[in-house]
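Quick one - inputs below.
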Amino acid sequence: MSQQEMSCGLEYTIAPDLQGCLTEAFHANYSFIVTPVVHPRFRRHHGADGNRVAGFTRSDMILSPQDWTSRLVGRLSHYLNVDSPCAEVRQRQEDCLNEELSYCKGLGLPAIMIALQGKDNHNLARILLSYFESSHHPSVIWTQVPMQCSRTRRQANTEDQDEDEDSFNEPWSWWSKFHQRLQWDKRIGVILEMSADLPPHEIFQRWLGEPVKAVIVPTSIFQNNKKGYPVLSRAHQQALTSLVQRDAQVVVRGARRATVEHYLQYLQRVWARRPNPNDDPMMSYARGWEDYLQTPLQPLADNLDTHTYNVFEKDPIKYDQYQKAITQALTDLKRKREGDSAVEQSPPKDISAVMERLQIGQGDQKPEEKDKPITVMVLGAGRGPLVRATLNAADITGVKVKVIAVEKNPCAVVVLAAQAREVWRGRDVAVVAGDMRHLKLSPKADIIVSELLGSWGDNELSPECLDGAAGLLKSDGVSIPCCYTSYVAPISSARLWAAARVAAVGPANQKEKNHETLWVVYMQNKHDIAETKPLFTFDHPAKPVRDYEGQEVTDHQGLPKTDNRRQATITWTVEQDNVMHGFGGYFDCTLYGGEMISIVPATHSVGMISWFPVFIPIKTPIRVTKGETISATFWRCVDSHRVWYEWLVEVGGRCTDLHNCNGKSSEMLL
Amino acid sequence: MSQQEMSCGLEYTIAPDLQGCLTEAFHANYSFIVTPVVHPRFRRHHGADGNRVAGFTRSDMILSPQDWTSRLVGRLSHYLNVDSPCAEVRQRQEDCLNEELSYCKGLGLPAIMIALQGKDNHNLARILLSYFESSHHPSVIWTQVPMQCSRTRRQANTEDQDEDEDSFNEPWSWWSKFHQRLQWDKRIGVILEMSADLPPHEIFQRWLGEPVKAVIVPTSIFQNNKKGYPVLSRAHQQALTSLVQRDAQVVVRGARRATVEHYLQYLQRVWARRPNPNDDPMMSYARGWEDYLQTPLQPLADNLDTHTYNVFEKDPIKYDQYQKAITQALTDLKRKREGDSAVEQSPPKDISAVMERLQIGQGDQKPEEKDKPITVMVLGAGRGPLVRATLNAADITGVKVKVIAVEKNPCAVVVLAAQAREVWRGRDVAVVAGDMRHLKLSPKADIIVSELLGSWGDNELSPECLDGAAGLLKSDGVSIPCCYTSYVAPISSARLWAAARVAAVGPANQKEKNHETLWVVYMQNKHDIAETKPLFTFDHPAKPVRDYEGQEVTDHQGLPKTDNRRQATITWTVEQDNVMHGFGGYFDCTLYGGEMISIVPATHSVGMISWFPVFIPIKTPIRVTKGETISATFWRCVDSHRVWYEWLVEVGGRCTDLHNCNGKSSEMLL
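Output:
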């Protein structure tokens, strides 16, 4: 039966001509769909003819054992319905399915293809889960799903828009529930069968968050262009390109309406149309890091190594922005001082202004305020990029600056000191080794410059460091950055969620911790369920805490006490059925005046590569329905020696556990 | 402030007079609510007067350290609102709450009382979870919740029935979500504040599934009876009794409208009205086993010990039922034989009837069918209770029986043999040691009697044992039992679920397994979400499997092959909002004719104590809403050396994981 199917059609991956260029295609690393799995049951029924693979007899194929275990995809018999309502049919077909699975196991195929025919897949999922549980090297499962359910489409006789959407929504829902039942296992991929009608944009986008391994393009949806070559409509071509960009393979299937080579040539043109990483610094930088989870740095607790400095200093945008911001701040300060000296002659308006001006001068000799150099402290100077930016800014503005570079990492201090001696010779640059939170320096700074932000803004403890260093800044001093905000968006990404689950490195209970921690990751295989919204904002200098009577509270050093704990609840409306696996986390930051840096998708500083976003998982993915409200609460908690986040999500009446209670799974050490 | 409350009211537990009978009450094991927690903050504000506990100064109280750590309940300040929408208020009150919690920790109080004022308790739950995480010996938390939300009731001006229900539903929902946020921790209890209006029956019943530690009865809902004593209305009294039956303490609170002693006397009468365990064999037998989880027996893989036999043989009902069933079967068989010998003279109607009759006689001498003894095999005879039942039945019916007692447990065989020698001397009783599945005995049995059922029917592998022993039974023989069915009902029981979670005995990943296994438990603190429904049915002798052509399949011994795999999906409609933690599992069984045994609640064989039900947990409790459909699928899976169950639940679009995939967490060994 399946042999006949084969002889009248074709079913190859992007490499089209199995007979001719098999070896070539193999070298090009294509894989092949074998149909059907050459199963003893078929041999029994079909005799020697059953012993065929993809339409040619096995003797035609010179397949090394390695090819069998890396290039062939087994296709399970599509007619097997292990979810039949009839118990006898179900049991028998279950036995057949298990027979085919163990034959695939015996052949050592790297992947097995199955097709979902409807929403009832409980038993199929159960059998496959058992297969994973009981196999040492289970094959990957490729789940074939149509883009559109033709049954639903046929039923929708009317022009009803909603029913039409249903026909596209349904197969996604089959797949999503099937994937859930297989616990979002990363060994389960999806093969999308392209339909003649394409779904609305949003519904199609949702597929981009799924692990699409291949897309099946029926020959029937190709059109002939003027020259008679098979081509796809613009919409199909765009859809195909966006899937291929995410590394989906292409399978052409159906009646042979054109020469096989023409399909191949067309697909190769589509392939070539993918954006060139060299055109985008982020893309070329992040190549190979797609969806790869990293634990966030803890630059306060740990000292960075030279490789990390190398990477960060290469950012083509970040230090430009800093330099612009410092230039702006120096200009403003210069203007202000000139104004101040003009005012100096006139009597002060009230006593507090006098007091303030006296305080500004604290520790200075202060004969000629205007001519004194502006003190710029670079806190966390690393190997000096911000010192360079400051000196550049001073040159641009013609302002005399005294730079004090504070750094706690002894290795970086050595580099800084060497530069001060040699590169910055003749400039007023002092290097101070130590933790900015525990130093007392004189003179106090007019400007503090720091780059302590993590991928989620405050998550590398910038607020605590800068508040701890508040005593180094004059009372009207400027902090660059002066303000930053973290952002979150609820996302769907089985891939990231499953990657976090298996990232376990340590004791068995690590797995639970993996879903209670932040991951730095260049997210690709994900879909935003709703827009990105601001979460926590920090200002510098920070506003001091007030007590019950409204008085500002000070600490033992007399510095204003600040409170960097935060709690915020954010809500989103769900636009289409989806599954939420966690959040994407970003930040933006005002350095000074109008100078910003941002990794928020909508406002991302073009070309800035220093930060990948964070993925904040939730322990149990939540299925969300169109129209529902996602309500997420985040806490930033602080105690004497650490900072951590806690979070929970509520959708409808359902609520996740509280994540990372008491910082049990992840924390940042002070 | 709280002192004033105290002086005009009273707030004691069931022991009323703190001043007078403190010691006495302590001896009687009552606990006391201390209000407020004597906190330094209060001392500061109120001076020496703050140093009062429950309305009398500390100097009045001779409290041993042990009393402080076992008898006092600390009440946290009710005005603290750590979920205030105002960030400043929230942060300050959070600091206060933490101060009070650590003071309670310092005092070593066994329990702390807090009050839920509304639905927003995210932050409160978070703080308490942190408290549990960070404390070595955390106090138990008693959560005070009104039975009716007075705010909602006031808003419901109309006579709208639904809104009225809402006012009762809401506080349950506050509590339930709060409890969920605390991960259904068993250290969280509820204190129910009785309202003047009582909720509808079903809503009240739902509270019985919650861990109600105490019930607060305001003095305002007492009425004076003719003699002027304070009494409760019949409805209140019934509600109170049902809570007290589940070990809830009683707190009388409010203005002192009668002598304290009168309240106490009344409550003692209520207390006395609880059913007497001595009136109910199950209740007296199960005392102390309430909600205590046990792993099911595996009598096939393990040999039972003498204690277990002792317990089971004490059942006053089970063996009576067996005896009745055997009596009935002997009677029927006798009648049939007499009929048969009458028919013997007439020529057989067709060849198959002849063949069958020849088969029946297989291995017998068969001169006078009618006078031959009836062969009764007791399979799994244990220490002989079913042999006794058979001999009794033979005496009753006057039928001559040959009893063959088969038992695999060598210890039990010794006891059986001794009884055959001494007690059953002169009766035709043969003892055979061995596994019923591997024996060949002659003559074949007319009747097989067995008692291999577990709490969930087939879960001790009765189907596999009896099918394995099918060769011992004549082709028209009778099996007692002839049919059994397992039953399930979705239940809410945070207590059982939490108990399963902490039942971990072994490696760290055991916890997950605990929610993928059956637990035998005398369930008390639970609430049925919907009715109990039948699941899997097994008949004996079993129907043989048929192949593709409809032929019966036989195994290598020529016995019909049976298939004891099962799959069934059951659906229920949710009647009111609830949280599903798993299933209650039961069975009923037809022994022979009309003789049944059952542990299904609606048809429970009165006085039968041999089986507690099973609790089948789900890994993550599911919140279910009125009108939703719960759909549960269960599989009974069989391979060559074991049997196991798998299950999953779907509510709305949400689906649990598949539980116990491939029997990874629990299995029954063949």
